[in-house]
Amino acid sequence: MALDTAKIKGIAFDAYGTLFNIASIDFLLEQLFDDRARQVAAQWRRKQLEYTWLRTLMGKYKDFYSLTEDSLYYALEATNTVGSEAQVRELMQQYYHLAVYPEVKATLARLKGKYRLAILSNANPSLLEKAAAHNGLDEWLDEIISVDQIRQYKPAPGVYQLAERSMGLPTENILFVSSNTWDVSGATAYGLQTAWVQRKHSVMERLDVQPAVTMTNLAELAELLF
User: Fold this and answer.
1) Which of 75, 139, 148, 226 is at 20 to 30 A from 114, Cα to Cα?
2) Catalytic position from the list 14, 63, 148, 183
3) The whole model's pTM is what?
4) What's the fold here for domain 22-96?
5) What is the C-alpha separation between 62 and 226, in angstroms, rounded?
């Protein structure tokens, strides 16, 4: 399905990997764990995602900060890496200060005014609000929407319904933007128009749904909509 730009009144962005660059934590991982840093990072991010899916399937919700901390402890154990509680706390604090991708601020500034702008994320509100404020994004965002409200993680359909409820717009008037293929698939299956930000070499999931448009960065989205 092609993107119907005439219908778009609001844009909901995923947070991690779309606006915020998770790799901005890597420098600290390297300082703390040296040659094991890459292994720890890969295990940490993989397990973080798995735990969101597993806890939703199990009906055992835990907030994203706590889940991410559990994932880090798992990664350290799985890679036989010694990490202290102080080091774990230091790494977790980085989530409040993540860097954004280079084009994010200019893109949001350009879109603001023409569209209602929101973040729709798995993260708990305090993580999102502080990371947004740290980067000065709060001046452009109308909504910061967290799955905490329904205690389920993406790609559960109820998460994408939150965008409608919080933004006050029907499905067809919302564009959802994410760099995560599984997230794009979930939003598309729910009925939102979707844009996939293909920031690295990857392929779309084979789940019988496709994004309306694919781009390499958010600046291309602004060009498309103006």
Assistant:
1) 148
2) 14
3) 0.96
4) DNA polymerase; domain 1 (1.10.150)
5) 40
Mean pLDDT over 96-120 rounds to: 98
Instruction: State the Cα torsion 20-214-212-152 to the nearest 10°.
Output: -30
DSSP three-state, residue 133: helix
The rounded distance, in Å, linking the Cα atoms of 140 and 51 is: 31
Per DSSP, the residues of 23-52 read GGGHHHHHHHHGGGHHHHHHHHHHHHHHHH
Q: Are 96 and 131 in contact (CB under 8 A)?
A: yes
Residue 135: what residue type? Answer: N
Separation of alpha carbons 218 and 149, rounded Å: 27
Q: Which CATH number fits domain 5-21+98-225: 1.20.1250.20, 3.40.50.1000, 3.40.640.10, 3.20.20.20?
A: 3.40.50.1000
Measured between alpha carbons, how far apart are the two ends of the chain, in Å?
20
Tens digit of pLDDT for each residue in 42-56? 999 999 999 999 999
Residue 129 corresponds to which tokens in the numbers above? 């609000």
Domain boundaries, the chain: 5-21+98-225, 22-96
* Residue 104 pLDDT: 98
138 is an active site residue: no
